Amino acid sequence: MIAARLSELLVGTTFRLVTRALFRVRVLGREHAPTDGPALLVSNHLTHLDAFLIGACFEPLVRFLVWQPYYELKLLTWGFRLAQAIPIWERPHSAAEAIGRARRELERGHIICIFAEGSISRTGDLLPFKRGLEAIARDLNAPIVPVHLAGLWESMFSFKGGRFLGKRPRRWRHPVVISFGPPMPASSTAHEVRQAVEQLRQTVGAR
Question: For residue 180, what are the β-bridge partners?
Answer without folding.
Answer: 147
